[in-house]
Amino acid sequence: MAKQFLGKIAVVTGAGSGMGAAVARRLAAGGAEQVVLVDRDAEAATAVAAGLPAARAVPVDVADAAQVDAAIAGVLHEHGRLDVVVHAAGVDDPGAKQVIADALVAGEPPDVTAGLDDAAWRRVLSINLDGTFHVLRAAVRAMTPRRSGSIVVIGSSAAFDTPIGYPHYSASKAAVHALAQSVAKEVIAFGVRVNVVAPGPTETGMAARTPAALRQSLADARVRPYAKPEEIADIALFLAGDAASNLVGAVLLANGGRFTG
Fold first, then answer.
1. Which one of 54, 80, 81, 176 counts the least CB within 10 Å of its CB?
2. Euclidean distance between the first and final Cα of the chain, in Å?
């Protein structure tokens, strides 16, 4: 990768694995002066950071606004600015996935919503939606005074095709897209760009934990196979870079041709 992020100060959430880790590695290869890897799993983030120049890990649960604010404040204290944020932190619901997979095996329609408890709903919404708000707010506070910066949010194609049996995840990602687009229209007046990547099935830890029957149901010989995290990272960093300077509030589908928006 060309040194398109030379001298940049970057924060990547969900950087301990999957797309977040791939983004962190791409930023380091792109010449970033500092890459701050944020993740709830401090050990995983530290392991990724250890293989990169000028990188460090910070344990953060994005559902906790105070932790997010403290992490961004630390970056500003050390560097005086924040240039790039890629927000890749998020969760799915393994329990719902298992119900869907069991129904597929039994040849029956999945019955998820009736049994979806408040704790499962709040877990997905608090991390995926609340966490995105916390990260966007902290990043905007850091970037707008300097009238410069780029934020990329990892959304999901599930916001559009709303998979059966996955109402909380689909709702969280649809809300993430709308949140990011609304913020994008606001903060471009202050020189800050916000955009979204909406991946389809991607080879991450989430995918590895997907039951075989459900994973097989997502396979489609007519389209590209599961994306690699690096492929999604390349799209995210295109959006973060100067080549995408005219993209504001975009939601780029990256689902291998499963459907178009």
1. 80
2. 29
The dihedral through the CA atoms of 15, 89, 253, 94 has a sign that is positive
Tell me the longest C-alpha to C-alpha distance in the chain.
Answer: 57
Query: Taking the domain 9-254, which CATH number applies?
Result: 3.40.50.720
The list of the chain residues with pLDDT below 50 reads none
Three-class secondary structure of residue 40 per DSSP: coil
169, 175, 231, 251: the catalytic one is 169
- E strands, the chain, in order: 9-13, 34-39, 55-59, 84-87, 149-154, 192-199, 251-254
For residue 227, what are the contacts with CB-CB under 8 A and spacing of at least 6?
199, 200, 201, 202, 203, 254, 256
The predicted pLDDT at position 221 comes to 67
Domain ranges for the chain, please list them: 9-254
Looking at residue 38, its pLDDT comes to 98
> CA-to-CA distance for 60 and 157, rounded, in angstroms?
26
pTM for this entry:
0.94
Decide the pairing of beta strands 55-59 and 192-199.
unpaired
User: Does the active-site annotation cover 169?
Assistant: yes
CB 30 within 8 A of CB 4: yes
DSSP state, residue 220:
-
